Amino acid sequence: MSVPKSKPARVPGGRLGRDLRILLHLLRGQPKDGDQQARLEAFYAPQAGHYDAFRDRLLHGREQLISDLQARLPQTGAHVIELGGGTGRNLEFFGPQLESFSQVTLVDLCPALLEQARQKFAGRPQVRIIEADATRWQPQQPADAVYCAYSLTMMPDWRAALDNAITMLKPGGILGVVDFYVSAARPPSDQVRHSALARWFWPHWFAHDGVHPTPEHLAALRARFPEHQFSEARAPVPYLPGFSVPYYCFIGRRV
Ligand SMILES: C[S@@+](CC[C@H](N)C(=O)[O-])C[C@H]1O[C@@H](n2cnc3c(N)ncnc32)[C@H](O)[C@@H]1O
Fold first, then answer.
1. What are the phi and psi torsion angles at 138 (to 5°)?
2. Domain range summary for the chain, segments of one domain joined by +
């Protein structure tokens, strides 16, 4: 059986009009008031219906991450968890393999994005959509793979989320992360060094929307997973011609 195509809520207007509305919300930024859930809901609720169409052009490397995970998962019966899974877009990248999983859990704190995920995966009993904080939620059984796609940079207590994710894994289980980042001024010799301008610009550009690219995530992941591999790349940014934002893709195995 094939995985259903994304069916976002209808948003009036052509693609340019919908993009402009998203850009307006990105320019307004995430509110400073309220707790993390209230801030996420205020930021994402007006964007939810066009989230996937716009983020497919902004959040690169997600299909690559899912493909890297697929290559490492058991053929059948895998238990997979996405933390900060939003609309469930990444689950669609698993394609027909999704049907072979014993359990797939998408955890997110934003009700408006979760509603999109619920619409997509209605009638899929193996897919559970959970409204919870990734820094605290725990599964009942350990997982074969846990992954975060562009969510660590939006979690103020990302260290707690990372610690929590590691405790969800079976021994030998896999953690996958894809996210924006900037290098340290003096990165390890096997990593890319970004210019001082890039190291200044991207954290300032994204902070307004509650996204915090930093060298610390990749450093912490590499330290926590002695057995790992990663790649570094840059991606174009919609409506920002000439700019490319750095991102990394990481896979680590819990020993
Ligand atoms: C940029 S979106 C990425 C969503 C999805 N992973 C994707 O690739 O489209 C970041 C997500 O992290 C979620 N998030 C932020 N803080 C969270 C937390 N503490 N617990 C769970 N989800 C959180 C947001 O609600 C949002 O859905």
1. -135, 140
2. 15-253
| Dist. CA 254 → ligand 1 center (Å) | 23
If phi > 0 it is left, if psi is from -120 to 50 it is alpha, else beta; for residue 106 that is: beta
Which of 108, 113, 208, 249 is the pocket-test mutation for ligand 1 (most atoms within 8 Å of CB)? 108
Look at the block and give the residue holding tokens 């994204």: 206
- pLDDT of residue 7 exceeding 50, the answer is no
State the pLDDT confidence band at 199, using cuts at 50, 70 and 90. Answer: very high
pLDDT score at 238? 87
Please state, for a pLDDT cut of 70, what percent of the chain lies above it.
95
- By alpha-carbon position, which residue is closest to atom 13 of ligand 1? 84
pLDDT at 9 over 60: no
Query: CATH topology for 15-253?
Result: Rossmann fold (3.40.50)
Host H or E run for residue 201? helix 196-207
- Name the residue type at position 168: M
Q: What is the pTM assigned to this prediction?
A: 0.92
What is the 3-state composition of the chain as percent helix, strand, coil, each rounded to the nearest 5? 40, 20, 40
110-127: average pLDDT: 95
* Long-range interactions of 34-38: CB distance < 8 A, separation 24+: 36/109, 36/133, 36/155, 36/156, 37/109, 37/110, 37/133
Which of 109, 135, 152 to mutate to test ligand 1, by most ligand atoms within 8 A of the CB atom?
109
Closest CA to 149 of 216, 55, 27: 55
What's the confidence (pLDDT) of residue 1? 30
Using alpha carbons, select from 44, 237, 76, 220 the residue that is nearest to residue 148: 220
Nearest alpha-carbon partner for 1 in 127, 149, 146: 127
